[in-house]
Amino acid sequence: MAAPTAHDWYLREWFATMGLKQRDLVTKLDYQPAAAHALWHSVQRYRKDHVEEIADLLNIQPYELLMPPEEAMALRRLRSAIAEVAKAEPAPEVDDAAPVAKPRTGTAG
Questions:
Q1: CB–CB of 9/66 below 8 Å?
Q2: Dmax of the chain from CA atoms?
Q3: Burial 26-61, CB ≥16 within 10 A → b, else e
Q4: What are the helix and strand counts (H, E) for the chain?
Q5: Residue 66: C-alpha distances to residues 13, 48, 89 (Å)
């Protein structure tokens, strides 16, 4: 028997955030009711295909299912803010022909 993982996914929290319910695993993803129940209550471990299918349903990145929705949304806001700053602040132009100063070594000479 495999050892339990040190982390879990945030399936129920994401579904609550998106206004979905356990039955949506059955109606929208064609999961069998028993499989949906087992995933919902962490009786069955999630697999990569579960994460990908459910992330598609929720319109989120697969890795976001492994973090609380609030944390994922905070990361999205941070990335968006960084992108805005990057767009607003053009990088200074570099003059390739300009001489480069030699570093000082601290010795006279």
A1: yes
A2: 82
A3: beeeebeeebbeebbeeeeebeeebbebbbebbebe
A4: 5, 0
A5: 11, 12, 33
Reading the chain (109 residues) residue by residue, the pLDDT tens digits are 455 555 689 999 999 999 999 999 999 999 999 999 999 999 999 999 999 999 999 999 999 999 999 999 999 999 999 998 888 766 677 666 666 666 667 666 5
CB atoms within 10 A of CB 67: 18
As given in the structure block, the two tokens for residue 108 are 């006279």
Amino acid at 89: E
Which residues neighbour 65 within 8 Å (Cβ) at sequence distance 6 or greater? Answer: 9, 10, 11, 14, 51, 54, 55, 58
pTM: 0.72
The radius of gyration of the chain's CA atoms, rounded to the nearest angstrom, is 24
